[in-house]
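Justification of computing resources. Each target in the renewal requires a structure prediction run like the one illustrated here; the chain below, 340 residues long, is used simply to show the kind of job we budget for.
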Amino acid sequence: MTQQGVAPDAGFEGLTRSQVRPAIEEYLGYYDRAGVKERKRDYPAVVNDFYHLVTKFYEFAWGQSFHFAPRRRGESFPASLARYERYFGERLGLGPGMRALDVGCGVGGPLREIVRASGAHITGLNLNAYQVEKARHASHEAGLGALSDFLVSDFMKIDAPDGQFDAAYQIEATCHAPDKVGAYREIARVLKPGARFAGGEWCVTDRYDASDPEQRRIVSGIERGNALPELVRFSEVREALQAAGFELLETYDGADLADPETPWYVGLAGGGLSIQGLARSPLGRGITGALVRLLEALRLVPRGTAEVSRFLNEGADALVAGGERGIFTPLYFFLARKRS
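Resulting structure tokens:
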């Protein structure tokens, strides 16, 4: 995989029109041939290329917050995301005068929600420079420039001094980490002694049976559709946090907290539809795919756009299958404290 570094064009972050089709072909070909060892080795380029390809699609369907949430009955999808984001700030005890780190901040939707709710200053960390620029611009537009700044950096080697932050959080970001211990240890390094770290991790659950070919196919589809090196179990997350120098305060699967009528994957499965959620549903994804194919045939979007849409749909179907079978969750929550 090769990282791109050119001006964005035609809705793809950091890619010219002529680079879109080769980029998606390279990404998909890479996942078809690369094993876990190679994915871990190449993760910076893989993840960067992935977000060059998908950011605009994510913004269209998800807004500014690229994650799931334990949803309550009668609660809209955007409201569930905002409530979940505020929950992280509350569990960390964030308030005015504190400095926190958002690990893998995306385009900054969660960061802005937590800043508004807490009054804390938050630094957004992201490997993808184009997403960082979007996040920086949106924060200034929202009048939050004084309480936020952004850092283009790898969470495996954070460009910040030791003991700088009062707290840190990651919301479905370190699922991309090639080494959980290494990622958590680096986060611990930039935290003050006793500081708290909260996370929402993508995991296979204890119901996952790796000897079952169908379950392996589903998990492989989730990894391929989301640029993941390897999904891990709950126990591996807990052990990695402790090995990295954290004391565990609480862990649980947030999927268990969602109302049975609105599981975390309900939007992707087609339940609880709204005008805003149509783009995430199977029907909306099908309509989007057909429209993209038409636009590509008319040469109004770059060649390869339809393939990006198709592989994202396949990834969404794998997420739903994993959720319905209870073998995957994106909501494994942990709260930990750096040992003094």
